Amino acid sequence: MWSQLSSLLSGKMDALATSDHASVVSMNMFVALLCGCIVIGHLLEENRWMNESITALLIGLATGVVILLISGGKSSHLLVFSEDLFFIYLLPPIIFNAGFQVKKKQFFRNFITIILFGAVGTLVSFTIISFGALSIFKKLDIGSLDLADYLAIGAIFAATDSVCTLQVLNQDETPLLYSLVFGEGVVNDATSVVLFNAIQSFDLTTIDHRIALQFMGNFLYLFIASTILGAFTGLLSAYIIKKLYFGRHSTDREVALMMLMAYLSYMLAELFYLSGILTVLFCGIVMSHYTWHNVTESSRVTTKHAFATLSFVAEVFLFLYVGMDALDIEKWRFVSDSPGTSVAVSSILLGLIMVGRAAFVFPLSWLMNFAKKSHSEKVSLNQQVVIWWAGLMRGAVSMALAYNQFTRSGHTQLRGNAIMITSTTTVVLFSTMVFGLLAKPLIMFLLPQPKHFTSCSTVSDLGSPKAYLPLLEGHQDYEVDVGNHDDGTEPTIARPSSLRMLLNAPTHTVHHYWRKFDDSFMRPVFGGRGFVPFVPGSPTEQSTHNLADRT
Amino acid sequence: MWSQLSSLLSGKMDALATSDHASVVSMNMFVALLCGCIVIGHLLEENRWMNESITALLIGLATGVVILLISGGKSSHLLVFSEDLFFIYLLPPIIFNAGFQVKKKQFFRNFITIILFGAVGTLVSFTIISFGALSIFKKLDIGSLDLADYLAIGAIFAATDSVCTLQVLNQDETPLLYSLVFGEGVVNDATSVVLFNAIQSFDLTTIDHRIALQFMGNFLYLFIASTILGAFTGLLSAYIIKKLYFGRHSTDREVALMMLMAYLSYMLAELFYLSGILTVLFCGIVMSHYTWHNVTESSRVTTKHAFATLSFVAEVFLFLYVGMDALDIEKWRFVSDSPGTSVAVSSILLGLIMVGRAAFVFPLSWLMNFAKKSHSEKVSLNQQVVIWWAGLMRGAVSMALAYNQFTRSGHTQLRGNAIMITSTTTVVLFSTMVFGLLAKPLIMFLLPQPKHFTSCSTVSDLGSPKAYLPLLEGHQDYEVDVGNHDDGTEPTIARPSSLRMLLNAPTHTVHHYWRKFDDSFMRPVFGGRGFVPFVPGSPTEQSTHNLADRT
């Protein structure tokens, strides 16, 4: 991604780097707007319709209008949308944090389902959108698009943005649903970016069996190699911190090393032309499973909240950015002579998105339900509708991919490209605003639960769902955990039918052997819960008893 | 600073923004080196001579040599030294953290002394170095330098870097000494940058009384306005967080708002052409006095360590950077025909630095001792030598200011300028390595204390000296604090002599009235210790009792 964008985009960062007074004014306004979004988002927390993302989007749009009026219709944004900024600075913390905060037990228990939804589902969605667009758009007059463009459209609109739904779902009341939507969203992001990269790196003007196979091979290679690299970097950080036991000297060193290693994993992926997104995701998962348990109490609290905060700010930043960029007048000029075409294209894309998602959510859910015996693990039709709805929103990933495919340095001269950019903007705005606004009432209607929107919950931290346990982090806790790894939602795995067995048993078997392997080999080497050497008089112990004055 | 650097430096950031594969390789190496510095710094923690800064500097130098050999003598650095990077990304977190972590009771109790050392002392040092250089350099053949250049040299070499000494001093055993060295270092950084800006913004080709007065006025205006802006932003953040009580919903919002407001204070200072360094310093102090007490327990731990970590990484980054840049071959070519001159200039500067510092440390210490009655508050001669030594090192601020004054976009064609750049590099390297390496043994020799270098101290966190108090943060604690604000080191203020009264009484009176004002007006409005509304069932309370499972 990086290397492809390089020559095209180096000019763009200038807008950010050029430090004249105008850009200082812009930066001030932008930071002030970010603060405003956070405060307003907080005030609207209890509102029935709103959430942080939509607030930021609306504030961005409003600011765009004000700037458009002040500048006399010349410009609508404070900063030019840049894929570099997006892929290098904003997306990595969001994805890393997603991996870092994921409830691993739920994630790994539902691993096969999540991969089915996230990877296979995205491929289904991609195929339907690509070929739907290919067959319908040819009848419309939208300029010249080749096969690679249509495949790119598929990848662009297969990238979901489930942040609106996740802000509404309560993971304590519907853990399975939350875990599915969350896990699918994360895997989906990575899959669509890997897919997009695979498309860009192939010459798809002529297509035959050999190229299709190569394409699949390339996709799998990117997927697997990136995962391994991420896991490797995460394990390396765990090993270093465990061996050296930094906590003895300094919390800051531990936190610094975790941050730098996370960033390093991303940079290494770029170095080896792999997918940084996927790498950083798995680095986050491994770090929270091993490294996080090797550091001091203070480092745990710090990393947990610092990563969540970075991710939170990046998300608000993104929505603000997309809101402002949506009104960019230059792009709309190309389509102003044929508004009907643009509306038609956007509507068709929205339709394809809905069909493409329905085409895998309901069949896969049925398959999943068929494989589960216990009623509590089945996904009801209402829940299926929620899963379907949760992935209808399109966000910043789609925007960034569309910019990358259809513009050169943020500008375009081709009619077809301009229409695709404006349609992407329309789809992102419409889906986030309309589908996003409806998410809260829809979920309240479909999953009526009395305590769903109480505001004083301890776990309402955005994107940092786990409550932390400050004192019970010892061997005792570990034993509880081992004894409890079926976690009560499922009384027994006995008597599976044959197809059930096929789908269900491997998950449990894999999970079971993984636990065994983890306990007997991985944790003793890399640390993790219950395998942290307890040093008497270490800061972990002292920090809670030290009542020294602060002033 | 920003606006001045703008046009000159926009080209430089390209080197960072240009995202071709070569720069990915550089970034990887740089991040890996940072990790290496942290690990090696940790391993050398107990070493008698080394500390983090010197380790980073040496690793930087070694890497520079390797790159020089690989590139066949063409280049020695991975990234070009850029003042933009330094003043916009690296210095603000360091200075903000300094303000945020300062022990405010010690800082404000010794406020007048710290200001005397930090501001008046820097001015004395600046004057001696400027006029010393002016009178001596004219006899050497070093090209054309005008008056503004000599004044800039004074400001450049008045900027101390006491980080090496602070890593050695133990603030629990010698709180007064630590507070003086730390406070002076922070005020010194700000003073020298403000001084440098004031010099640059004045036409000093002709000097008369009117211009000198204007210069002083400008300096005072920058100093005071920046301080007020910083305090204002800090108070605003405290007020917003107190009024809205974010903790009820989300730790991440609080942390995000604190980070964004801190950055906003810096950007606002740039907007109004003030000194961002000074603004961000006072913003940090105010935030730690008010805002920090208004947030949840988790936010406190997170901000404390996250800011310290950012500052720590920025420091290591800087020393690594300076080490690599020192071998930049281009600059040395100019001076290679007259190595004698360069050595002479560097030696003279080192001499002037030592004299300039002695010229205020010993007289001001004498004055201070004269004003103090109790023996325990006096500064012994040995301690005075430590204070003197602590400020002999020169660091990244000097480098950045020298680049700004003597180069255009990092390059120079003038012989005089090239000599000043290489001399600055030499002085920085020599002072950090030689004086820095000697700091540990010197302090061990001058202040022999048995437990000085034990490694298992809870407060050995680099740059985050305060131990945090997790549970005693209520009204009870507040009363203890109020009843205790003479803190035992000084039994009474009675019977001061006239000069003692003149110097000592105001400090105590100011401190006393400030406490009264703070308790009766500021804290009730802006929060702070003991004035945080206690909400039953708030996350503060629950987080310690919530033992929910994490996996």
UniProtKB/TrEMBL annotation, chains A, B:
Keywords: Ion transport, Membrane, Mitochondrion, Potassium, Potassium transport, Sodium, Sodium transport, Transmembrane, Transmembrane helix, Transport. It is a multi-pass membrane protein. GO terms for cellular component: plasma membrane. GO terms for molecular function: potassium:proton antiporter activity; sodium:proton antiporter activity. It is found in: Membrane. Signal peptide: none annotated. This is Na+/H+ antiporter. The gene is NHX. It catalyses: K(+)(in) + H(+)(out) = K(+)(out) + H(+)(in); Na(+)(in) + H(+)(out) = Na(+)(out) + H(+)(in). Pfam families: Na_H_Exchanger. It comes from Oxybasis glauca. GO terms for biological process: regulation of intracellular pH; regulation of stomatal closure; sodium ion import across plasma membrane. The chain crosses the membrane at residues 22-44, 56-73, 85-102, 114-138, 150-169, 176-199, 219-241, 262-287, 307-327, 348-366, 386-406, 418-447. Residues 31-443 form the Cation/H+ exchanger transmembrane domain. The keyword Mitochondrion applies. InterPro entries: Cation/H_exchanger_CPA1, Cation/H_exchanger_TM, NaH_exchanger. The lineage of its organism: Eukaryota, Viridiplantae, Streptophyta, Embryophyta, Tracheophyta. The keyword Transmembrane helix applies.
